[in-house]
Queue: 3 jobs
Job 1
Amino acid sequence: MYVEVLLELKNKQTDQTYTYKVPDSLEDLVSVGKRVKVPFNHRELEGFILSISDFYDKEYKIAEIINVVDEDVILNEELLNIGKFIKETYLCSLSSSYATMLPKALKASEKTNINKKYKSNLFLNIDYEAALKKCSNNKQKEIIDFIYENDGVEKKEANLISTSSVITLLKKEIIREEQEEMYRLNSMSVLNDTKKVLNEEQQSAFNKIIENLNKPEKFLLYGVTGSGKTEVYMQVIDEVINANKTAIVLVPEISLTPQFVYNFKSRFGSFVALLHSALSDGERYDEWRKIARGEVSIVVGARSAIFAPLKNLGIIIVDEEHSESYKQENNPRYNAIDVAEYRSNLNQIPLVLGSATPSLEKMARASKNLYTCLELKNRINNRTLPICVMVDMAEEIKKGNYILSERLKLEIDAAVSRNEQIILLLNRRGYSTTITCGSCGYTYKCPNCDITLTYHKTKNSLRCHYCGYTIFKKDTCPNCHDELNFYGYGTEKLEQIINQEFPDLKVLRMDGDTTKKKNSYEKIINKFKSGEYDILLGTQMISKGLDFPKVSVVGIINADATLNIPDFRSGERTFQMLYQAAGRAGRQDTIGNVIIQTFNKNNFILKCVAEQNYEKFYNYEMDIRKKLKYPPYYYLVSLKVTSKDYDECSKEATKVVKYLKSNLSETSIILGPTTASVFKVNNIYRFSIIIKYRFDDKLKETLIELDKLFILNKKVNLEIDLNPSRI
Ligand code: ADP
Ligand code: ZN
């Protein structure tokens, strides 16, 4: 018997498989998708078995595998295929695809000490009466009774009675010890939630999905904020489980969606496995085994949960479909929604993408009937969407209101007097974004990156939000010792201003700085939900999926911040973030009021937010994309040429463009090289090249060849990103 083994070799990025002989003693243990240990150039390496055959026609002698690493198959047929799909779609190596798909403990190249955990159980080794007779004291008898009454107990618990007695009983073989594999996480099973009666819109969406459970139908569940999308997901999944099938539910980032997860846990209990970034490697390994063994039916998780080894998959649901978190920003640059489509086709099952603010790409597909659009136009119980007003900050500044407008202050007061809560969004953390000297013009900048340092007052430090570079702030200009000026403000400053203006109100801040610790996000949310606090302020984290019944006012402090980012999607992102933030207001017993503070009161996108009008935004933005030849009218490839050496970087970037121009078809548009929007990060220069195309049968081939040219170049690196989320 011979096996074909995929080995990941550090200095070769291309995939290599090698043939090994299987010694007779290991033949029964070998199967496709398991790891084996093999000799390779005087080393021992691990690799996945990709195929098995009985014959090997080459003449020369061939090495034998050393052992089989896994008891169970790791890469089942579906996962093997997904790996190939990722390799072909995103032009990466097969071994890097599998490495991305698997938890650390199961990767082929990883040397880890993540092991299975076992617990010891004690059982009677002889008949109960006989056992009692053999006991020499009461403690021993107590232990025998304890084991007998419970049909075996955990050793840990018997030890609480008497460790020495346990040892004696074991030695005398009156009782025996057995090891049982255990999981680090125990699924809590609080089944305290029941189905709600669906309203008409929910029912009709539910029916359409249910009618297509055995088809690879793609649905866009387009439902306004608070329209009850989660309830539709849960009831559909209930049907899927009743048909003995399984479900994957993707959410943007699990720690950011505790309420969503809580809903699933309380509806489905131990049927659910959670895959989130806060799991330890050991916990992740355990959850993976639970899933692969069919001990759970539903997997809820962030991006990589799309690789969950569920068998008999019945549906895939992607909540907040528009979220950028579904795209991985490093190699392999896969998009979980593409993988979801692939699995939907492979298994002939539906894919449901849900959002209140669908991405333009997905809505465009729905409008061409490539996806079936299911609309939830109304909030649950016909609660009204919030009322939005725009405030012109240029006018406010004349009145001396730099950060909080008159109107917002009034609304805050009014809400508090009605015993309601307030959410304030400012998508920038820290205190000041720029510190400059008034006399000599000195500005604190990152020495490694092309960006100013942000001042964090609590730690009196200046930090680079790209590379983490940190220094302490001096009291005066480090250059001329004159006074320093602070420009731009972040959440930390906002918190201080609120405390000054409203000394009686209790304020919570939620941003990257206050949520570093495990569970801190959840704690802040629970504190706010308890009603003890009046104001929750924070970055875009607070705009997502949260459901606080008592929030009636949402203030968007600086609506312009994200609009001005140089990226073709910044309008779309701004709309999505602000619309979602506005949707936090007036979800239950209150009428929502949203105050949008801006210096661009005529900006069309902000007007669409103020009107809560997705369709208007969609038509406007689609028109721009068409004119400028951006997605969804054109596909994009983003190439980044990076190097520590500026001259080399620039030279190679020019060569790349030349190469593309002479190899791609004439209809493709090649832009660049230009310096990337943040030109230097961590002392590495970055040049950017963009390809826009509709159909180009030479594209993949050209990119693969180009990539090969750079593998050997030690000085300059090339990154290729197909369908990038940012350029
Ligand atoms: P979305 O995800 O669309 O923003 P949610 O799923 O958070 O909306 O639902 C909003 C609220 O309405 C939640 O508190 C949910 O429990 C409740 N809800 C959903 N469907 C129903 C229903 N059919 N009847 C009563 N309440 C519902
Ligand atoms: Zn930096």
Job 2
Amino acid sequence: MVCLGNICRSPMAEGILRKKAFDKGINIEIDSAGTGDYHVGEHPDKRAVETMAKCGIDISDLRARQFTVTDFDEFDEIYAMDDSNYKNILSLSRNELDESKVTMILNLTNKGENRSVPDPYFGGLDGFDKVYYMLDDACEVILQNN
Ligand code: 4NP
């Protein structure tokens, strides 16, 4: 799960997918990262933690890290939150296999539309609720596909 700062959207996506996989007894490796390095080492944004806590998911212990080229080797599927993240991830790809792993996450629920998960960082709590519902639907599709 990849966004820009790895403190709002992608840690929420990581937490949602972890919970769903655990509940369904599916054993998969899940992680998140940011294309930028501004928040490396930080815990998720308080508003993301609060929104997830309302839904019974604790992401307070996560720490931001930056996406690196080795993530193409570690993971089979890489989900970008928005078109800028998508382009930045692809700019690090080395071959067609790397490229084939990258998907705009909302294309799981809105095929071919290349919609972005709106960045909630500069808005209020309601933006985080919207992000939660979008990611919850998309993560459900990921587990149906696995
Ligand atoms: P994220 O949100 O990419 O969903 O973690 C952001 C976090 C921080 C900033 C931008 C977006 N920032 O500009 O610092």
Job 3
Amino acid sequence: MNNTLIAVVFFLFFVACEQTSSNKTYPLHLSDAIMGTRYTIKVTSIPSAINKAELSTQIRNLLSKIDKKMSTYRQDSELSQFNKSQSIAWQSISPSLFVVLSEAKKIHQLTQGAFDITVGGLVNLWGFGSDPMTQIAVEDSEIDVALNSVGSNFLQLDKNNQKIKKDIPDLYLDLSAIAKGYAVDLVGELLEAHEIVDYMVEIGGELRLRGGNANNQSWRIAIEKPTAEARMIQKVLPLSNISLATSGDYRNYFEVDGVRFSHSIDPRTGKPITHKLASVTILSDTTIVADALATALMVLGSDEGYKLAERENIAALFIIKVTEGFVEKATPAFEKKLKRDNAMNKIRHGY
Ligand code: FAD
């Protein structure tokens, strides 16, 4: 077989980012590398009693703490310790890891299994995980073996004792589609604890927004056109008090003989998705939910994903590849949330 293999992995690009047209500055503006991508935090106004250097340190420490707990890219993380352990006994875990695993189980149920953090073994098999390896189309027999260790039902949570257990020794958890969203929420809560009401927190395209930007307007969030060739804007959304996450097939994929294998894995088949859905953007009250739902609907595709989003009242915008470019399809909940966010912001701030 003549394999033409193109690997495309652009971790430093965003799928959604803020557009500020003026050169007004922010009293607190942080940007740095984390979790294999970048974060950006903008605070529009800051109470005078706050020590900015101290707050910046608190934010960095918080992000680094989450990375040390939830990364599959660090052998020493709490998650990696659990993944490496072959024990099927109950194990105590940190409260924050417990929160993320609980949310992941809920979204697994809501999406009828499309979102499944136990796909970790398959993510590695297909070359999208922490093990550096050549990305090639994988044999069906290898997929079958890996599928034996997939299923959120193999993960048990004991809320009262904050313990977890795996039913099978090889269960391997991957929080790449949910932990960034969780981290964004925690940073937002930290800012709010300091009575900061106008801010944007973003990690790798997952965003939490409050109030307005330096132009005294709603935040202008650009959704990227889902194409790997050039960075272009598909549309700009004015947003104020909401979270947004986008999942796409156009930044982290490889191609073999013209077939695109994306990093979103369908837990039913054990294979990367290959359908025509290019990206999904979710609006939600929390970033953890937006992050996970974006991956889930990406896995389900434009038809099944849209039906589920409509039925479950999920605010989702699908961007679908067609012969001549892209078409957009938003759920009624998406249009409603957008309108409500804009209306509420006009009432609150007159933006
Ligand atoms: P999303 O759509 O949000 O997530 C896709 C990812 O989710 C896939 O890559 C896969 O890992 C997983 N996934 C695939 N299918 C499913 C499914 N059906 N259900 C659930 N999950 C699925 N990358 C590095 O290169 N170096 C690092 O050091 C590094 N550290 C990280 C630390 C943490 C704590 C986290 C959360 C991620 C880290 N990453 C790292 C991963 C990197 O940021 C990922 O590319 C990213 O998390 C994937 O996010 P996304 O927004 O591109 O795609």
